[in-house]
Structures are given as structure tokens and as C-alpha cells.
Amino acid sequence: MLSKYELLDFKTLGDERGSLIAIEEGYNTPFEIKRVYYIFDTKEGIERGFHAHINLKQIAIAVKGSCTFVLDNGMKKDEMKLTNPNQGLLIEGLIWREMKDFSPDCVLVVIASEHYDEGDYIRDYDRFLEEVENGKN
Ligand code: TYD
After folding, report:
1. Structure pTM?
2. What residues flank ligand 1, with Cβ below 6 Å?
3. CB-based contacts of 99: which residues, under 8 Å, 6+ apart?
4. What does the pLDDT look like over 40-51, one tens digit per residue?
């Protein structure tokens, strides 16, 4: 699988009552949805993540508040701040991710292509770099 990350723009539907965004499998997600989880009440100064995945594809959406993703493909690091519920960060393939700067009100929803599987995690940075190298051959 090619590794990549990109921001997806979700269409905001709404009327005088407020806003609404719909995420529909195969329509505005590029994978089948097997799991949804959310991270909230993150304590001040906490950083999370520090891992990559072998097979998992994910879309992360700050549906409330904001947080910053550090994204590393083994060659370069990028930062993306999620501030808007109409933007989803799609992450596919071997990308080391860290999350930081959670606002106290941040609710980060993650839509995932697979059920939870600890065996899919790479939690060791050196192993991540090895996997990136192996993937180039
Ligand atoms: P982890 O993925 O390490 O969190 P983060 O990447 O945000 O730092 O998960 C934290 C703990 O929660 C870990 O013990 C595994 C568990 N967990 C599940 O049981 N199911 C899930 O879907 C997820 C994402 C985590």
C-alpha cells in the first residue's frame, strides 16, 4: 500500500438550525468502515499516538476543538492542525503519527478501515524506519 496523508473536505449541510455533516462509506470515504472511535477529555500537555500501522486506513476529524497531527513517512515530517469539523485527515500506509496540542474541548473522531488489532501497530520508531526501507525494495 502506498503511504499518504491528505485532508478531505466534507460538505457541510445546514439550514437556519445549524450544521450537519454526513460520512457515508464509499461515498466520501475511500474505504469500508469497520470501526469508529473518539478521543476526548485529553489532559493538558498530553501527546498521543507514537505509532504507525501496517494495514489500517483512518480518517481523523476534530468534530469539536482542535489538535495537531505530526505525520512522518520516514523521510520527512509534516504537521497538520485539525480545527474544523468539515475536514478529515486521511492516513493510509506506513505513516508514523503523533498527536499533540489538544484543546481542552477537543473531540477527535477516528473512522477506521479495520477492527482494533494490536498486531497491526508498529510502536517502535526504529522498526518503523526498517519497514519503510523494506517497502522501497
Ligand atoms: P492507542 O491506539 O495506543 O491510542 P493513541 O494512538 O491515541 O495513543 O490506544 C490506546 C489504548 O486503547 C490501547 O491500550 C489500545 C486501546 N484501544 C482499543 O481497545 N480499541 C481501539 O479501537 C483503540 C483505537 C484503542
Report:
1. 0.96
2. 35, 37, 39, 48-49, 51, 116
3. 39, 47, 48, 49, 67, 68, 69, 70, 108
4. 999 999 999 999
| Mean pLDDT taken over the chain | 96
Amino acid at 137: N
Specify the residue with its C-alpha closest to ligand 1, atom 6. 49
Distance, CA 15 to ligand 1 centroid (Å)? 36
**β-strand partners of 97:** 51, 71
Which grid cell sits at 34?
Answer: 469497520
| 76 C-alpha to ligand 1 centroid (Å) | 25
Q: Does domain 4-136 have CATH number 3.40.50.2000?
A: no
2/75 Cα distance (integer angstroms): 14
The domains of the chain are located at: 4-136
Give 13 Cα–ligand 1 centroid separation in angstroms: 31
C-alpha–C-alpha distance, residues 94 and 5, integer Å: 10
**Which residue has the CA at smallest separation from atom 2 of ligand 1?**
49
Active site residues: 51
Kindly give, in sequence order, each residue whose CB lies less than 8 Å from that of residue 116, ignoring residues fewer than 6 positions away: 35
